[in-house]
Amino acid sequence: DGGITQSPKYLFRKEGQNVTLSCEQNLNHDAMYWYRQDPGQGLRLIYYSQIVNDFQKGDIAEGYSVSREKKESFPLTVTSAQKNPTAFYLCASSTIAGADTQYFGPGTRLTVL
Amino acid sequence: QKEVEQNSGPLSVPEGAIASLNCTYSDRGSQSFFWYRQYSGKSPELIMFIYSNGDKEDGRFTAQLNKASQYVSLLIRDSQPSDSATYLCAVNWSSGSARQLTFGSGTQLTVLP
């Protein structure tokens, strides 16, 4: 089955700790995205990547880092510099031509203890 | 700043009625418009996209686009309780060679049996 997987589904972080969220896709999409969603809010773009070994900051990149070493994978690290990381994190992917519709993974819910 | 505005609701309609969801956007250069459905605790799933002025129908769903008024809407005919969800409007815009989506905060729809 083609799709986007995210792990873990739930993640708990202690203050001062870095954590990494996984995102993998087998859709052969070039572009991948990370969004953050807070309760009652829309999605805000953290980082995106259109090609391996290249990525761009979105609207709220501070306190986050990413890598894109493989086309299929786009992990997100939430660093201790992110002061309010409790949120629902969504990974998406798309082609970069034509419709460029974004499709989403199931999400990771991060809670700071 | 690219902005997408939606009525937050909640919007309640009786089963079998037409639900009308509205969205306005600020960037006149936007070319692509998307509607996603998000059930509570789940990730967004694509319902429809529209590029051209006018109506686009897919089953019980109709998307309407008016670029002159910077307005896009989603009509759901014969609403069912299973349609109860938050509906996110997303607008595509270009930044150099990259294309991004800006999301509205969503409209919560409840279909009453």
Describe the structure using short key phrases.
heterodimer, A: 113 residues, mainly beta, seven-stranded mixed β-sheet, four-stranded antiparallel β-sheet, 11 strands, 50% strand, globular, B: mainly beta, five-stranded antiparallel β-sheet, 0% helix
Q: What's a quick, concise take on this entry?
A:
The complex is a heterodimer of chains A (113) and B (113). Chain A is mostly beta strands and 113 residues long.
Q: What does this entry look like structurally?
A:
The complex is a heterodimer of chains A (about 110) and B (about 110). Chain A has about 110 residues and is mainly β. Chain A is built from no helices and eleven strands. Chain A has strands spanning about 5, 10-15, 20-25, 30-35, 45-50, 55, 65, 75-80, 85-95, 105, 110. In chain A, the strands form two sheets. In chain A, strands 2, 4, 5, 6, 9, 10 and 11 form a seven-stranded mixed beta sheet that branches. A four-stranded antiparallel beta sheet of chain A has the order 1-3-8-7, with no helix packed on it. Chain B is mainly beta. In chain B, about 0% of the residues lie in helices and about 60% in strands. Chain B has no helices and eleven strands. In chain B, strands 2, 4, 5, 9, 10 and 11 form a six-stranded mixed beta sheet that branches. A five-stranded antiparallel beta sheet of chain B has the order 1-3-8-7-6, with no helix packed on it. In chain B, a hairpin with a 6-residue loop joins strand 4 (about 35-40) and strand 5. Chain B starts with a strand and ends with a strand. Classes of the chains: A mainly beta (about 110), B mainly beta (about 110). The interface of A and B includes residues 50 and 100 of A.
Outline the low-pLDDT stretches of chain A: none
Helices of chain A, by number, come to: 0
Terminal-residue CA separation of chain B = 40 Å
Please trace the helix and strand order of chain A, writing H or E for each element: EEEEEEEEEEE
Q: Termini separation of chain A (Å)?
A: 35 Å
pLDDT averaged over residues of chain B: 93
Shape of chain A: globular
Portion in helices of chain B: under 10%
Which oligomeric state applies?
heterodimer
Helix/strand structural class of chain B: mainly beta
Number of helices of chain B: 0
Main beta sheet strand tally, sense and closure of chain B = 6 strands, mixed
Poorly predicted spans of chain B: none
Major beta sheet of chain A, specifics? 7 strands, mixed
